[in-house]
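Team,

Forwarding the record for the chain on the shared tracking sheet. I've put the sequence and predicted structure together so nobody has to dig through attachments.
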Amino acid sequence: MSRITGKFTELQAKKRKGLIVYLSAGYPDYETTLQAVKAAEEAGADMIELGIPFSDPMADGPVIQKASTQALKAGATTGKTLELIRQIRQQSTIPLAVMTYANVILHAGIEKFMADFSAAGLDGIIVPDVPAEESDLFDIPCKAVGLDFIHFAAPTTTPDRIQMVCQKASGFIYCISTTGVTGVRHVDYGAIAKVITAVRQATKVPLAIGFGIGSGESAREAAQYADAVIVGSALVQAIGEQGVEGVRSLIQSIRCGLDEQGEV
């Protein structure tokens, strides 16, 4: 059982919603990211998603785009993010995933990227610009070294593609709450709720819902439809404005909001 699957199994046994938090690796610097990961776990995060800074982050909104740009200007690299994961793994067993883009993996070499990050202690990879139809190029070598390759479902996902995603899925399925890029905003969960219902009928792989969530109230609302919520832009903004303590405070607030959800 992978570390990600184990966490969802634990959450289900405790009848608790999961909290996955996104941080931009190297923003504002790697030491701060390391301290933020530790603070996030202490504050109640169940899984950490680290974004590898990339010059053309097509799925990311203004907040994460700005963080990626600043991290790259400060010297962020894929190799330094790999070392960050080694450092985190020396101090924590929390499930870790990286969010990156296909070009980053292709540049490093697919098998080498998967092997190096698995050896460092990574558990899963999220690659938003790889469609399900082409995912075997990354999914197969990923699973060969014990990594979960995270697939997506969105309000626009057709019934045929839902079946394809569910057949390939491991770890969890990333359910995008709305079309567009990342960023905190009000979301009508009606569209993704219909897709989630179809996904539930096709797989028992856990579902996590992301995009738009930035408070305990919005997390609680989103969690009605999924096993976990993913919070990104709000935390990246918090670390930029308030540092590690801003991350800790926001996660504690969101954790409280989720726990008020009650039993699932």
